[in-house]
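S1.2 Input.
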Amino acid sequence: MAEDLYAVLGVARTAKAEDIAKAYRKLAKKLHPDLNPGDKAAENKFKQITAAYDILGDADKRRRYDLGEIDASGQERPQQRYYREYAGGEDGARYRSTAGYEDLGGFSDLFGDLFGRGGGARSGSQRFAMRGQDAQYRLEIDFLEAVNGAKKRITLPDGGTLDVTIPAGVEEGQVMRLKGKGMPGLGGADAGDALVEILVRPHPVFKREGDDILVEVPITFDEAVLGGKVEVPTITGNVSATVPAGTNTGKTLRLKGRGIKRKNGKQGDELVKLTVVMPDRIDEELKTFAEEWRDKHRYDPRRKLREQA
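S1.3 Output.
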């Protein structure tokens, strides 16, 4: 990849991490292969932005890229070497400086580890081997997929795929480690792991608080006064809940075991906050009833508020 990674994502080199993530998500939603079947140009562009974000979305990789330690494909740049040679005397003695290798613990130590202290290449089981690097990915899933579990597939920059099993109850920001699904190792060593960070899209109805699910449910004026049964959504489907007579806005019902399954097998609860909602139009019958009721049963719900102020 020869392009400037910042240009690939359309951000400035001074962009904040959250701005880089926002730019990537916007482009990914537009260019994802699932949304552009058969469009090779979109597929190639998706690979480019994913590879760019793999570096710029990681604070350490971004720092190394900015310093020129790695290139746009994430490969190490060769360290600068300085060689000075001169012929001295009749024996033609030569001198070499190994400046640039100091941070590797010494030129001789480095090659002694790779090829053996005697200078020859190691053979058999003693040949050089290095575990593969871990690969980092971000996976955005729906709220209900996070709480109930799901199977997802990640499209990799090289066009390959990675199948991921999302366990029930996974949380925003949680990192899943897939053993041996990273970069291949060298010299027969093990492959690295795939580290998948989970991002959860918000839900229009449900919110999460630990292992509990929070939901607001509107009820009518007569349901608040008289009580009754109302239909309540849960993460596994609708259920019937009992509203007690005389319910006020803000009262919370607890539905046991309707939350997120814990690791010990138990489940959290669903907390249902009730909100009394008046009809869109107050007709004459309701207005007359309210006036007559007020004349006979006037009360002051704000008395305690004034006393405590």
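S1.4 Remarks. Residues 79-126 have pLDDT under 50 and may be disordered.
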